[in-house]
Amino acid sequence: MSKAFSAIGEEREVERDEFTPGLEPQPTWCPGCGDFGVLKALKGAMAELGKDPEEVLLCTGIGCSGKLNSYFESYGFHTIHGRSLPVARASKLANHDLEVVAAGGDGDGYGIGGNHFMHTARENHDITYIVFNNEVFGLTKGQTSPTSPKGHKSKTQPHGSAKDPIRPLSMSLSAGASYIARTAAVNPNQAQEILVEAIEHDGFSHVDFLTQCPTWNKDAKQYVPYVDVQDSEDYEFDVQDRREAADMMAETEEALYDGTVLTGRYYKDENRHSYQQEKQERGDMPNEPLAERYFDDDYDWERSADFIDRHK
Ligand SMILES: Cc1ncc(C[n+]2csc(CCOP(=O)(O)OP(=O)(O)O)c2C)c(N)n1
Ligand code: SF4
Ligand SMILES: [Mg+2]
């Protein structure tokens, strides 16, 4: 429970359950699915931050993970496969008063939506991106995904995958994300703490969330035991140092497939301006939400061509 300012400016307590829809649909996730852990951590994080459901927009992709906003009370946009990020960033730019969270699977975000992931990180849009990493295409019945380990057997790779898996943390760092973390559904307290930090961060926050899929990925490790790199004496690195973070990410990505599950915060750059701030500093983005102009009948609309001084 935590405090929030309501629409009329009064402080009030916020409960985790305010993010549970009044008419709660029966979750269609399988028993034991890691996706329940993401839902719980996100509800807890929003309540801890004192957010009202009407201040939040949750954009999801397609997959078992994409069902998240059916079970989460807020504004929601269930987009098409791999396209949660373009919708999320446009929404944030049009109404920067909204707290915008995008979420989807490893196939959705690192596969079909990989291009959007790379450029949203590069541009440092001020949104939080949660990737449910279960190492398979869950919804479509267990095909190999970009994070499936080499040799992983599935319907699409019956002799074992011949591909090396993607390195999501390293990829995010080189693309330009300014907050990068990994957590796991089996570690709900750490997951909530990390989501709170990610949402509070001004810039693109990427959380690789390990979610077990007991139905289609039985040979995958269930992510226990896990190690929190911040709590363990075996790991010493500075999350603000790009090179040290890169080394720690590489070690983490290697270790996962050798059976050691490392989680925690990997990188944080608090000095980098978000895309919205950069645009505002250049004078080509208004400070008030575009959405407010739309409802202002007296607003004098400019065309983008009017901004160009043709005599220069
Ligand atoms: C353009 C397009 N291609 C393929 C599909 C079929 N499809 C639906 S979900 C999915 C994969 C989901 O895997 P992932 O993103 O890892 O999510 P999970 O179900 O594991 O949470 C695919 C291939 C689709 N819906 N749209
Ligand atoms: S198929 Fe896997 S990812 Fe989908 S709901 Fe079931 S356990 Fe979860
Ligand atoms: Mg998946």
Account of the protein in words:
This protein has 312 residues and is an alpha/beta fold. It is built from nine helices and twelve strands. It has one domain: Rossmann fold, CATH 3.40.50.970. The strands form three sheets. Strands 4-3-5-6-10-9-12-11 form an eight-stranded mixed β-sheet, sandwiched between helices. A two-stranded antiparallel sheet has the order 1-2. Strands 7-8 form a two-stranded antiparallel ribbon. A hairpin with a 5-residue loop joins strand 1 and strand 2 (11-14). Helix 4 (114-123) crosses helix 5. The longest helix is centred in the last third of the chain and has 17 residues, at 242-258. It binds thiamine diphosphate, iron/sulfur cluster (SF4) and magnesium ion. Thiamine diphosphate binds at residues 62-65, 81, 104-108, 132, 134, 136-140, 145. Iron/sulfur cluster (SF4) binds at residues 29-30, 33, 35, 64, 134, 138-139, 213-216. Keywords: Oxidoreductase. It comes from Halobacterium litoreum. Its cofactor is [4Fe-4S] cluster.
Write the layout of secondary structure elements.
Layout: E1 2-5, E2 11-14, H1 35-48, E3 56-60, E4 75-78, H2 84-94, E5 99-105, H3 106-112, H4 114-123, E6 128-133, E7 136-137, E8 143-144, H5 168-175, E9 179-184, H6 188-200, E10 205-210, E11 226-228, H7 242-258, E12 261-268, H8 275-281, H9 290-294
Parallel strand pairs: 3-4, 3-5, 5-6, 6-10, 9-10, 11-12
Antiparallel strand pairs: 1-2, 7-8, 9-12
Helix pairs in contact: 1-6, 3-4, 4-5, 5-7
The structure holds thiamine diphosphate (TPP), iron/sulfur cluster and magnesium ion.
Biased composition (Basic and acidic residues): 9-19
Keywords: Oxidoreductase
GO molecular function, one term: oxidoreductase activity, acting on the aldehyde or oxo group of donors, iron-sulfur protein as acceptor
